[in-house]
Amino acid sequence: MFGLARRYVQTSLIFAIASTLLGMHMIAMRIHPSRAGLGWLPTAHGHLFLVGFVAMMIMGVAIWMFPRPKESRYSPLISEVIYWLITVGTAIRAIGEVIATYHRAPIWLLLSVIGGIAQSIAIIAFVINIWTRIRPTGRLLQEDREPAPKGGRTA
């Protein structure tokens, strides 16, 4: 596994731990009678797990495992930029939502929105960047063609 793919996977594991710790905190809040409510914590928990862990794990494995055709427009530099966008975006979104649960200043939700925009840009850019690595770039190989219907006639 090369460096960038390893970083995606390692970072996703860190987000999995953060999501788990936040989930434990949420359980503790539910059983502690003096707490007012969960606020934005479920949203932060969901984004830490689904975007930070699941999506980043998939991205890291995809750039590691999918072949890179010579004619591909895939760019390792763009994958690096995407890594930083999704990592920082997920972190600042989660931080903004956690703090917004305890402090009502609107700046914290603005931070969450900025993080969400970074996440969205990163995911869309990832799909565009990886697209040529997941589909044939030229003529289909014989084994990739759909079999002819029985009777030898084609539609």
Structure in a nutshell:
This protein is mostly helical and 155 residues long. The chain is built from 4 helices and no strands.
How many separate domains make up the residues?
A: 1
Report the end-to-end length measured between terminal Cα atoms. Answer: 45 Å
What do the pLDDT scores average to?
A: 86
Structural class comes to: mainly alpha
User: In what range is the share of β-strand residues?
Assistant: under 5%
Number of strands: 0
Instruction: Please count the helical segments.
Output: 4
Largest sheet: none
State Rg: 21 Å
List low-confidence stretches.
Answer: 140-144
How much helix, percentage-wise, in residues?
55-70%
Provide the succession of SSEs. Answer: HHHH
The outline comes out as elongated
Quickly list its features:
155 residues, 4 helices, 0% strand, mainly alpha
Write up what this structure looks like.
27% of the residues are buried. With 155 residues, the protein is mainly alpha-helical. Residues 140-144 have low confidence and may be disordered. It has one domain (3-135). The longest helix is centred in the first third of the chain and has 29 residues, at 3-31. The protein contains four helices and no strands. It has helices at 3-31, 41-65, 76-102, 106-130. Helix content is 68%, strand content 0%.
